[in-house]
Write a structure and sequence with these properties.
Blueprint: E1 23-28, E2 34-39, E3 42-47, E4 61-63, E5 73-76, E6 85-90, E7 93-98, E8 106-111, E9 117-122, E10 129-134, E11 138-143, E12 152-155, E13 162-165, E14 172-177, E15 180-185, E16 194-197, E17 203-208, E18 215-220, E19 224-229, E20 238-241, E21 247-252, E22 258-263, E23 274-278
Antiparallel strand pairs: 1-2, 2-3, 3-4, 5-6, 6-7, 7-8, 9-10, 10-11, 11-12, 13-14, 14-15, 15-16, 17-18, 18-19, 19-20, 21-22, 22-23
Amino acid sequence: DNPFNTEFQMDDSVVLSYPEWPASTFSVDYSGRRAVLVVQKWLAVVRLDASRREGESRALKKLAKQNKCEIKSALWCPVSSRQNYIVSTSQQKLEVWDSVAERNTLVCSIRAHTRPISGLSWSFTDANLIGSCAVDTYVHVWDVRETRKPSFSFRAVAGASLVQWNRRNGNLLASAHDTDVRIWDTRKPTTALGYISAHMQRINDLDWSHWSAAHLTTCSQDASIKLWDTAAPREPTRTIKTGSQPIWRARNYPLGQGVAMALVPAMHSGDNRVFLWGHSDALAPL
C-alpha cells in the first residue's frame, strides 16, 4: 500500500518506541499519519498509523543525512498543497525538504540569520511562507519559491526567541522577546502593529487561537499562562497560575475553549505530563 495515502484510521492511542534514536523534536504532518523526528544531525520520517512489520525499515525516509551541524527544530507544512514539505533549522541555516521525492529531497537551503535560529513557524494560510527569528533582532518571512532575500523583515530592539503565524489572518505574526510580545503585519513591515508586556520572566511559548484572529496565548518561566485579546492588550483576558513550576508549552485546543500545557520538568524528575485547562475555570486543570 502507499505509505503516504492520507486516508486512514488510527487507534485512540499509539505508542512508538525508538530507543536507538536520541530524538529531540517531534512534528506531525497535515494528515496525522506521519511524523518527523529530529535525531541529532538528521531527520527520520516515521508512520503513526501502523506498527512496524517484520523486515520493514523503522523510517519511511531519512533526510539531511549529510548535515554537519546538529538540527535544532523541524516542522511539517500545515497546508495541504505542500503537506509533504518539512522545514528544519541548524545554526543560521533553514532548509526545506520534500519527504516523498525519490531524489533531490532538498528543496532549498537558506542562510536565514546572522545568529542561530531560535524560532520557526510555517504559515497556516500560505504554503510558501515560513517565518524565522533569532537573537540578531530580526523576524524574517521567507518564500520557498524565491530564497535570495526575505519577502518581509521585521526588526525589534531585542532578540526574538519565538515566532508564530496567526491561524486566521495570514498577514499577522507574533514574536516573543524575553518577557514581551510584538505583533507584526506583513502589510506594514516597518513597525510593530502591537506590543504586549506579557510576563515578569522569559516567555517559553506563544500560540494563536484556532477560532479568533485576535486571541493569543502565552506561557512563561513565571508559572503562568495568559490569554490575550490583541485588540486590547493592556491586561490579559484570563490568567492561569500553575503553582511555582515554570511552564514550557501552552497550546490552544483545536476544538473548544481551553489550553493544553506542559511544565518545565524539574531536574531528573522525568515529569512529562500534559495538563488540560478550560477557559471557564482557571483554578484547576480538567
